[in-house]
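YM 10:42: MlaD family protein sequence, as discussed on the call
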Amino acid sequence: MRKEFKIGLAGIAALVILFCGIKYLKGINMFKPESYYLVEFENVNGLPQSSPVFANGFKIGIVRDIQYNYAKPGHVLVGIELDEHMKIPKGSRAELVTEMLGTVKMNLLLDLQNTTYYNEGDTLPGSANNGLMGAAEQDLLPKLQQMMPKMDSILGSLNKLLADPALAQTLHNAEQLTASLNAASEQLNKLMSTDVPQVMGNVNDITANLKVISGNLKGVDYASTILKVDSTLANVRMLTDKLNRKDNTLGLLMNDSSLYQNLNATATNAASLLKDLETHPKRYVHFSLFGKKDK
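YM 10:58: structure's back
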């Protein structure tokens, strides 16, 4: 009997430890005194049991149980266990907040201006705050539904555009253009690395030569040169005037027609004399072995 009693006692102890361990894992401390309150919601948005309860961002308790309020259809009662030192002022309320990942947590919004408090077991009002997900569901989703037909039209136009052979040809032309630009860039790099330095060297040489020429020109006496040029032009003008007048030999030679006529007559007579000489040479040349002249 003692052995069986010990085994039974050990089994009961194991069950108690298991029960307490499960409660502890759920966040329920069996050995810590707590106060119990009810919160009434119209919709708990999937609030799970054993979820934490926060006040000012600090965990002050957990959700102990959730039950439907059959006495008031359309409402749900959520039982929460808070630290025994936590006092809830009247006028406070609970709020369910839906976070980005869809998890729901409860926040107590305390009315710290009120000095009267709820008693343990009282019921607090509660409301739902859907947060970003709720705002997206209320505002963004209707707009997305309105945009869906337009999106279908846009996708259809895009598919039609992608299926157009002209797009492939355009991409092919763009590829060829890119290749041409790459070749031009390589040639430009080659030009910049070889020809441009050589051209710049030639330009530097030309600049140096111009500098030398400029230095030489700086030493030229322009005033005396211009005076000599003016004197030469005056002499040329005087010679031109004399050639145009008949009071000098050159003027007569250039302007008197009689000289031309005399020269023309002389040339005519000379030509006639040469022709007669060819025709009758004996008239002008006499030759004999015995010294006799023919008439």
